[in-house]
Amino acid sequence: MADTAVETGAEAGGAGMPQLDLSTFPNQIFWLVVTLVVIYLILSRVALPRIGAVLAERQGTITNDIAAAEELKARAKEAEAAYDKALVDARAEAGKIVDEAKAEMQAELDAQMQKAEAEIAAQTAESQAAIAEIEAGASEAIKAVAKDTAKEIVAAMGGKADARSVTAAVNARMKG
User: Fold this and answer.
1) Which are the contacts of 142, defined by CB distance < 8 A and separation ≥ 6?
2) pLDDT digit string (tens) for 30-42?
3) For residue 18, what are the contacts with CB-CB under 8 A and spacing of at least 6?
4) What would the mean pLDDT of 117-132 be, rounded to a whole number?
5) How far is CA 4 from CA 7, 11, 17, in A?
6) What is the pLDDT of residue 14?
7) What DSSP letter does each residue of 121-159 carry, written as one string?
8) CA dihedral in degrees (118, 119, 123, 128; nearest 10)?
9) First vs last Cα of the chain: how many Å apart?
10) What's the CA gap between 84 and 95, in Å, rounded?
11) With a threshold of 0.70, does the pTM exceed it?
12) Chain centroid to CA 160: how far?
């Protein structure tokens, strides 16, 4: 039996591979050409147009997206320029408002200072008048006390003093 298996293998191997058998080459070439033509037709009529359409659609989408991005970029630059201008205008307006407020506060401060100075001057005048009145009253009181004291001292010493000489002596002493 082992001999039979070896002989059967030799018989089958003697014919060789059918692909390399020269008698089947024309048939193999025919079916190869038919298969390649069918694959070419399927690819050229079905697959390649679909792939081309997808690529064209992608290219259109990319082009549209790039154009939209450029437009949005231009809008963003315009918005940034408008923002910068508004910011500059706002700063200028704020500076103007601050300057006006400072001027208003300075004017109010000046008015209050003048009012305070006027009140101080009025109080000073009143105080000076009161001081002058007090000085005059004190001076008269001192003169009266000095006259009475001088009369008493002269009388205590045993002399007699008239009112005119006592007044002249007190006035002379008060002046200097």
Assistant:
1) 174
2) 999 999 999 999 9
3) 24
4) 92
5) 5, 10, 21
6) 53
7) HHHHHHHHHHHHHHHHHHHHHHHHHHHHHHHHHHHHTT-
8) -10
9) 174
10) 16
11) no
12) 97
Query: How far is 123 from 134, CA to CA, in rounded Å?
Result: 16
pLDDT of residue 9: 46
Whether 165 and 175 have beta carbons less than 8 Å apart is answered as no
Rounded Cα distance, 82 and 74, in Å: 12
> Cα separation of 40 and 155, whole Å?
163
User: Identity (one letter) of the amino acid at 30?
Assistant: F
Our CA angle for 121, 118, 104, nearest 5°, is: 150
Distance from C-alpha of 112 to C-alpha of 114, rounded to nearest angstrom:
5
Q: In the block, which residue shows the tokens 């014919």?
A: 15
Place of tokens 């009025």: 122
Amino acid identity, position 79: A
Query: Which tokens go with 125?
Result: 């005048």
